[in-house]
Design goal:
The chain is α/β, with parallel strands linked by helices. About 35% of the residues lie in helices and about 15% in strands. Keywords: Hydrolase, Metal-binding. InterPro entries: Ureohydrolase, Ureohydrolase_dom_sf, Ureohydrolase_Mn_BS.
Length: about 210
C-alpha cells in the first residue's frame, strides 16, 4: 500500500497529470485516496459506486481488506463527504459504520426515489476536489457478470453514465476496481464495460 501511495504521488508531481488507477480489488482505494489527499493538502469528496459499502472496521481479520478500505479513508480524515451509490448488500455493521462516519448511503431499494438527486450531483466545493471510485459490481450482473461478488438488482450502465456525466465536480483522481476476467464468460462483455468506464472517467478528469 505504501508503494501504491508513493506511485500515485509521483504521477501527481507531473502536472497536469491526474491519477486514474485500475484494480485489483477495492483495497487499493485507501492508499490512492490517502496519497491524493496528502498531495493536495486536504480532504476530498468521494463518489463511490458499489454494491457493497466496503466500510467494515475489519474483515476476516484484515483491517486493510477490500471490505474495509473506506473505513480507513474516513478514519484518516482523507474525505469530507462520502457518497455510496448502488448499495444492495449491507449488514448492520455496514449501516452503523456509515452513521459513525456520516456517510451518505444510497441503497438500490430506494434508487427510483433518489435517482433525480444522484443524477444531478454537485460535489467538491470547499475541499481539494472529488475522487470517484467505481467498483464494477455496482452494475447489475446483466451488464457486468465478470466480477467476484455478483449482486443482482444493480445499476444499469445508463444509470452510471448519467450519474458520472451529469456530476458537477473537479475530479482530481479516480479508480475502477473489481473486474475479474476469470468470471467474464460472456465474450469479454465486462472487460468492454470496464473499458468504457475508464474512458468516461478519463474524459471527466480531463475537463
Amino acid at each position: 500500500m505504501n508503494v501504491i501511495s508513493e506511485s500515485v504521488k509521483l504521477v501527481m508531481e507531473e502536472d497536469p497529470l491526474r491519477p486514474l488507477v485500475l484494480g485489483g480489488d477495492h483495497s487499493i482505494s485507501f492508499p490512492v485516496v490517502r496519497a491524493v489527499s496528502e498531495k493536495l493538502g486536504g480532504p476530498v469528496d468521494i463518489l463511490h459506486l458499489d454494491a457493497h459499502p466496503d466500510i467494515y472496521h475489519c474483515f476476516e481479520g484484515n483491517k486493510y481488506s477490500h471490505a474495509s478500505s473506506f473505513a480507513r479513508i474516513m478514519e484518516g480524515g482523507y474525505a469530507r463527504r462520502l457518497l455510496q451509490v448502488g448499495i444492495r448488500s449491507i449488514t448492520k455493521e455496514g449501516r452503523e459504520q456509515g452513521k459513525r462516519f456520516g456517510v451518505e448511503q444510497y441503497e438500490m431499494r430506494t434508487f427510483s426515489r433518489d435517482r433525480q438527486l444522484l443524477e444531478n450531483l454537485k460535489l467538491g466545493e470547499g475541499v481539494k476536489g472529488v475522487y470517484i471510485s467505481v467498483d464494477v459490481d455496482c452494475l447489475d450482473p446483466a451488464f457486468a457478470p465478470g466480477v467476484s461478488h455478483i449482486e443482482p438488482g444493480g445499476l444499469s450502465f445508463r444509470n452510471v453514465l448519467d450519474i458520472l456525466q451529469n456530476l458537477q465536480a473537479d475530479v482530481v483522481a479516480a479508480d475502477v476496481v473489481e473486474f475479474n476476467p476469470q468470471r467474464d464468460t460472456v465474450d469479454g462483455m465486462t472487460a468492454m464495460v470496464a473499458a468504457k468506464l475508464v474512458r468516461e472517467l478519463t474524459a471527466k478528469i480531463s475537463k
